[in-house]
Specification:
Blueprint: E1 28-30, E2 33-36, E3 43-46, E4 49-51, E5 57-59, E6 64-72, E7 76-83, E8 86-96, E9 103-104, E10 109-123, E11 126-128, H1 130-147, H2 155-161, H3 172-192, H4 199-214, H5 236-258, H6 267-277
Antiparallel strand pairs: 1-4, 2-3, 4-10, 5-10, 6-7, 6-9, 7-8, 8-10, 10-11
Helix pairs in contact: 1-3, 3-5, 4-5, 5-6
């Protein structure tokens, strides 16, 4: 059984899986749900997906915490990592590189597979299809990239050529966790018109890009996936402003639609965020 690339996430290895597949697509030896046991032939409910990936490094799919390690009769040596509200189990391991309670970041190696990998995903104790989870994370990462938020594969470019300061560095981990959960809803609300960015934000984005085009910030070098507008170090202030405005709008959406705020914020910061979202007279950003 094979899955198309639309179902895959992009890990720090440069591939769209928690391991580096040997071919174009990872081979699945046993799918999710009602399956026939490969050895006994009996029908049973499989709570994960088994991938053919012998002795390959396994990576963290996002930033998270190791909530379980051990050995059981079904999955042999295993590691469980919690990413937001999702518990992801890596089973049938030949070795583990993490310990219980350890924090991990996206792309960090956490284990090595055995003859194959069992990947299981659950939410609040309820099993879900891992392929649906992988697809969700992949879409979230593509969305983050579209918003200008760096992903693991872009980090080298940004750190080497374009250090970006957008005002949210202190709360970056918390905000990225919020984005990993709510970005699809944010974009659905934008497309449906149930959430509309403030006039100030919309006008500000237009002004920034108009000023940047006048300053010839775009296509100064060959565009790449990490740098689609071909910008150089000279454009770092532009990137910082745009990132800051887009993150601010996402946080305004979270506050106005879900009453969710960055935990470390004061009441004054929360009120200021809501006030900035309300429709205002358009103004230029200098």
């Amino acid at each position: 059984m094979n899955y198309s690339k639309e179902h895959l996430l992009e890990s720090a290895s440069g591939f769209a899986m928690p391991f580096e597949p040997v071919g174009e697509q990872p081979e699945v030896s046993l799918g999710y749900g009602e399956q026939k046991h490969p050895f006994t032939g009996a029908q049973f409910n499989h709570d994960g997906v088994d991938f053919v990936c012998p002795r390959l490094p396994l990576y963290a799919l996002a930033s998270g915490t190791v909530t379980g390690t051990g050995n059981d009769a079904v999955h042999d040596d295993y590691v469980i990592i919690r990413y937001g509200k999702y518990d992801v189990k890596y089973g049938h391991l030949s070795s583990s590189r993490v310990r219980y309670g350890q924090r991990v970041v996206a792309g960090e190696q956490v284990a090595v597979s055995g003859d194959f990998l069992h990947l299981g995903v659950s939410v609040e104790g309820k099993s879900i299809d891992p392929m649906a989870f992988l697809q969700m994370v992949y879409v979230n990462m593509e969305t983050l990239r579209a918003l200008g938020v760096q992903t693991a594969s872009d980090a080298a470019f940004l750190s080497r050529e374009m250090p970006v300061i957008n005002g949210y560095e202190k709360d970056q981990d918390v905000i990225l966790d919020m984005m990993s959960r709510y970005l699809p809803q944010y974009f659905q609300a934008l497309m449906a018109g149930s959430y509309v960015p403030s006039e100030r934000m919309q006008q500000g984005i237009r002004n920034i890009f108009a000023q940047s085009a006048d300053s010839h910030y775009f296509y100064e070098e060959m565009p790449t996936i990490a740098n689609p507008l071909g910008m150089t170090q000279r454009a770092a202030p532009l990137v910082s402003k745009v990132q800051g405005m887009l993150v601010s709008d996402f946080l305004a959406y979270m506050a106005s639609q879900h009453q969710v705020y960055v935990p470390t914020w004061s009441e004054e910061q929360k009120k200021s965020l809501i006030a900035s979202w309300r429709p205002m007279v358009s103004s230029s950003i200098h």
